[in-house]
Amino acid sequence: MTIDLYYSPGSAHCRAVLLTAKLLRVDLNLKHLDIPKKEQLAPEFVKLNPQHTVPTLVDNGFVIWESNAIITYLVENYGKDESLYPKDPKQRALIIQKLYFDQGTLYHRFADYYYPIFLTNAIPDPAKHAKMEEAFKFLDTFLEGHEFVVGNNLTVADIPLIATVTTYEASRFDLSPYKNVIGWYSRVKEVLPGFDEITGKEIMTKMYEPFFKTKK
User: Fold this and answer.
1) Which residues of the chain have pLDDT under 50?
2) Of 130, 127, 138, 129, whose CA–CA distance to 105 is shortest?
3) Is there a catalytic annotation at residue 11?
4) DSSP reduced 3-state for 9
5) Domain of residue 48, CATH code
6) Per-position DSSP letters for 26-55, written without gaps between them
7) Looking at the structure, do residues 94 and 176 belong to the same domain, yes or no?
8) Is residue 83 part of a domain?
């Protein structure tokens, strides 16, 4: 049985899937798509995913895209127990809430601020930077009094959040004011296998430093 993952390593959403698969010991057949070269628009890929987005997973003929859908599918299908995605409705609701926070707030505000700078050499917008700082204050508050984003155990909610936070870090966003985030970052790094090779500081710096070298 082959599980294909169409991905781009520069994408935090793709890295979240890679981290999840590594944690679950699920082997993926990686299919790198070069987004700047528009390989995602190849007819054979569009046939799989009409939205032509990465990540896209193909598991023995089953096709799913959107990173949170992929990681929860992998955990439910290949996880050995419920620890990462408990069936308790309240715990699950809190996890889903944090998944929405990652995509709808934390990552969205990253994209809103940094994408114009990286892609069009736009002048940084202080108001958008303040919105990122606000999002980190939210995350810092969520972590008050416990070790992970939902309680004291790693759940699937921590994985996309750490992928997003490492993207911020590589983009020279200052994490130092957010003490709970820094403590959580260290804990997640220790418990996620493959962290350094997938989304660690060294590899992320290599990916993002070229954006800064091209700035005026």
Assistant:
1) 216
2) 138
3) yes
4) coil
5) 3.40.30.10
6) ---EEEE--TTTTGGGSHHHHHH-TT--S-
7) yes
8) no
Write down the pLDDT at residue 216.
Answer: 46
d(CA 74, CA 79): 7
Report CA torsion sign: 144, 204, 164, 110.
positive
* Calpha distance 117→146 (Å, rounded): 35
- What are 115-168's pLDDT values in tens digits? 999 989 899 999 999 999 999 999 999 999 999 999 999 999 999 999 999 999
The two beta strands, 62-65 and 56-59, are antiparallel
- Would the pTM of this model clear 0.90, i.e. be above it? yes
Same domain, 63 and 152: no
Edge to edge, the sheet with strand 29-32 lists 29-32, 3-7, 56-59, 62-65
Q: How far is CA 97 from the centre of its chain?
A: 15
- On whether residue 84 sits in a domain, the answer given is no
Please indicate, yes or no, whether residues 56 and 117 belong to a single structural domain of this protein: no
Q: Which of 11, 67, 83, 186 is catalytic?
A: 11
Structural domain that includes position 93: 89-213
Tell me how crowded residue 136 is: count the other CB atoms within 10 A of its CB.
20
105 and 129 co-located in one domain: yes
What's the number of domains the chain is made of?
A: 2
Nearest CA-CA partner of 139 in 172, 183, 170, 171: 183
Q: Are residues 102 and 191 in the same domain?
A: yes
Bridge partner list, 7: 32
Q: How many residues does the chain have?
A: 216
